Design the sequence.
């Protein structure tokens, strides 16, 4: 079965849309107080809620125990956003219920007992919210959630209480980054209860000019209101990115075209490429196509697909783990060249 | 604890930076946190860590951050035995009942983090029917105000009818 990011349209500043819902059982202590045997029981119950019985979705899911997995597998799943860095670090029983196309992952025993995550390519947040909402309803048929009339879904951390929802877009902002204006925008967003960070969560570096913008407020606003606010803010950032792209094209045309064509040339002909270099160049090429600057044939797979395949752990899963980093760089250049 | 950068102000923020692939952790005052954030925008200040700073403020007004209740008994969750002090250090609750054990302490914290302390979003289907209707009415009334403001009168009339129907069900 195809993964959600395969065949994704790839012409947009908004790369993907994601919803996360945090839920907890009423009857089990939260993660910091949960014993290993309680965790095993809780995981079993959650697995059954999805996999057993005749729900429409049971056939589409499999359970993967994470804490027993080899580090490279864990890391590969983290790179594909199936699991969080927090889950990867856990030494207690934990796992993930994953849909075949990897668009739905339900982490079990992360910071909260249950974290439903749904993701889709492009600007699709409403669709993704609908899906997360439905998965939540299915789980709730079997599970008594920790919930309070006044403050909503009770979560391990007070920053998630209420809706337990984090709605986010992954956005590609090379021109804003180049212009040095990102920090101003990030500061303004912070005042509105939203945050921007690197795509692998808190404290991670932005790779390929990709940023994740998400809500911080989970209490006092409904899911729909949060999504509306996220849409408004993201639309403005998208608009700014477009304007700056045009400004750069007007004022520094030769420099911009040179940068983009160089990136294209290197990706097409280079014989060794590190992950970091490849991602930076792919980001330039993505912008080049979107701005209509590049008239060469498009690569055979999308920018985001490249991102998913050439990250360190995922790439090692493709080419094998017995190569050293120099040999991997050669293989990476070859992998990209074949698709350009 | 004093700020590790200026050494003058009280540290309120825990900052994590990635510097050349190395993780650097620092406790900073608000001022310094702001200044370093401007330099190092790849790794914005962690909100969760900021929270621990917020919860840990030892000189909160009116004693709301104290580990004792009004009768001077230690604040502790009866179910999981987590004390308020422990929660403050971890930034994590031990179980659902902690929310009720620390209720008085928490409302001002929710207001600080979220600007609000009332949930207006989704309700579990299992939540009592009464409650569902009450919340739905609240939401519909909000929507009605919006529709009137935007001069979408047809929509407003439609919402008003829905409100009446719901109120009818509530009276029964
Ligand atoms: Zn300072
Ligand atoms: Zn408790």
Sequence:
């Amino acid at each position: 079965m195809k993964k959600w990011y395969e065949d994704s349209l790839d012409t947009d500043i908004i790369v993907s849309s994601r919803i996360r819902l945090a839920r907890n059982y009423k009857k089990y202590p939260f993660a910091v107080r949960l014993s290993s045997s309680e965790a095993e029981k809780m995981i079993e119950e959650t697995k059954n809620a999805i996999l057993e019985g005749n729900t429409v979705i049971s056939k589409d899911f499999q359970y993967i125990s994470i804490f027993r997995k080899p580090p490279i597998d864990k890391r590969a799943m983290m790179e594909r956003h199936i699991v969080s860095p927090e889950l990867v670090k856990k030494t207690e029983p934990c796992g993930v219920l994953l849909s075949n196309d990897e668009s739905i992952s339900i982490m079990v025993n992360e910071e909260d007992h249950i974290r439903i995550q749904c993701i889709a390519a492009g600007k699709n947040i409403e669709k993704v919210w609908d899906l997360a909402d439905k998965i939540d309803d299915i789980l709730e048929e079997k599970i008594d959630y920790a919930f309070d009339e006044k403050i909503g879904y009770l979560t391990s951390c007070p920053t998630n209480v209420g809706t337990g929802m984090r709605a986010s877009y992954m956005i590609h902002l090379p021109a804003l980054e180049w212009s040095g204006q990102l920090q101003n925008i990030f500061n303004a967003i912070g005042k509105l209860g939203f945050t921007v960070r690197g795509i692998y969560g808190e404290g991670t570096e932005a790779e390929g000019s990709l940023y994740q913008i998400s809500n911080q407020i989970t209490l006092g606003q409904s899911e729909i209101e949060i999504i509306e606010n996220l849409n408004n803010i993201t639309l403005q950032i998208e608009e700014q990115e477009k304007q700056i792209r045009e400004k750069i094209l007007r004022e520094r045309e030769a420099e911009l075209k040179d940068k983009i064509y160089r990136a294209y040339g290197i990706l097409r002909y280079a014989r060794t490429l590190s992950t970091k270099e490849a991602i930076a160049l792919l980001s330039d090429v993505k912008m080049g196509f979107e701005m209509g600057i590049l008239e060469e044939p498009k690569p055979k797979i999308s920018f985001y697909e490249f991102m998913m395949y050439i990250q360190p752990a995922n790439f090692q899963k493709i080419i094998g783990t017995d190569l050293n980093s120099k040999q991997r760089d050669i293989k990476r250049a070859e992998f990209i060249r074949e698709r350009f | 604890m004093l700020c590790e950068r200026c050494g003058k102000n009280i540290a309120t923020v825990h900052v994590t930076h990635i510097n050349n692939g190395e993780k650097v952790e620092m406790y900073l005052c608000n001022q310094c946190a702001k200044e370093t954030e401007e330099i190092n925008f790849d790794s914005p200040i962690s909100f969760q860590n900021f929270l621990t700073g917020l919860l840990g403020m030892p000189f909160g007004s009116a004693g709301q951050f104290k580990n004792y209740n009004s009768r001077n008994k230690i604040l502790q969750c009866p179910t999981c035995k987590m004390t308020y002090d422990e929660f403050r250090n971890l930034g994590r609750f031990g179980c659902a009942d902690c929310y009720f054990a620390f209720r008085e302490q928490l409302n001002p914290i929710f207001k600080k983090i979220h600007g609000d302390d009332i949930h207006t979003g989704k309700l579990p289907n299992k939540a009592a029917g009464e409650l569902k209707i009450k919340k739905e009415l609240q939401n519909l009334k909000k929507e009605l105000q919006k529709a009137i403001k935007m001069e979408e009168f047809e929509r407003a009339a439609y919402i008003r009818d829905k409100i009446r129907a719901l109120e009818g069900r509530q009276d029964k």
About this structure: Chain B has three domains: 1-43, 47-114, 129-171.
